[in-house]
Amino acid sequence: MTAMDRIIPMIDHAVLAPDATRDDVLAGCELVAEVGTASICIHPRWVTVAAEALQGSPVAVGTVAGFPLGATTSEVKAFEARQAFARGADEIDMVLAITALKSGDYAAVRDDVAAVVGAAYIADAEEPVVKVILETCYLTDEEKRIAVELAVEAGAHFVKTSTGLGPEGATVANVRLLRELAPEHVGVKAAGGIRTVEDCLAMIDAGANRLGCSSTRKIADGLETT
């Protein structure tokens, strides 16, 4: 397997900048359709635009819920998920209820994830995927362990390192830790600060199954020269 075949199909191309426009989303759709990433991840407002642009493409449409702080209520996150799936999304990257976790309110954290997972199946989406963003930069290793355990209990399909908007993105140490903590059937997504081929390979070698990247073009161009 070449590096290109190994890396590109793992990428969730992120178009999540606060000032990302419709044209930015459409340009992202053109890119992911061209290179063949796993998905594009865009703000909820643009789900219909992306779904229409990628109709007939194997590239999934992803969006976010509770982004970027995880501080909205479970009802709001579940509504975001239901609406997104109804508009054509295939995947949701939701932000963990970070403050609830750090307050020791573990049942609330588990129920928060379960609300979004439940919304995915209520929406009758085809093979819906829910990824839980832990925002590891704010958590101790023990809190990371608890967060993974609660996300898995609630039915999450992936645990994810970061939003990419916090003070620290993905690290090899955190990806390795999440891979050790999560059962085999739950994926690990590394996101935040992954900008080069070398970054991608380091995260994959640490155990990542998905890569959240906004530098997909740069990475693809780098792969073509290797």
Q: What do you see in this structure?
A:
The protein has 226 residues and is an alpha/beta fold. It has a single domain (3-224), classed as Alpha-Beta Barrel (TIM Barrel), CATH 3.20.20.70. Helix content is 46%, strand content 16%. It has ten helices and eight strands. The chain has helices spanning 3-7, 22-35, 47-53, 74-86, 98-102, 106-122, 141-153, 172-181, 197-206, 216-224; strands at 11-15, 39-42, 60-65, 91-95, 129-133, 158-160, 187-191, 210-213. Strands 1-2-3-4-5-6-7-8 form an eight-stranded parallel beta barrel, surrounded by seven helices. Strand 7, helix 9 (197-206) and strand 8 form a beta-alpha-beta unit. Helix 4 (74-86) runs parallel beside helix 6 and helix 6 packs parallel to helix 7. The longest helix has 17 residues, at 106-122. It is globular, with a radius of gyration of 16 Å. The two termini are 13 Å apart.
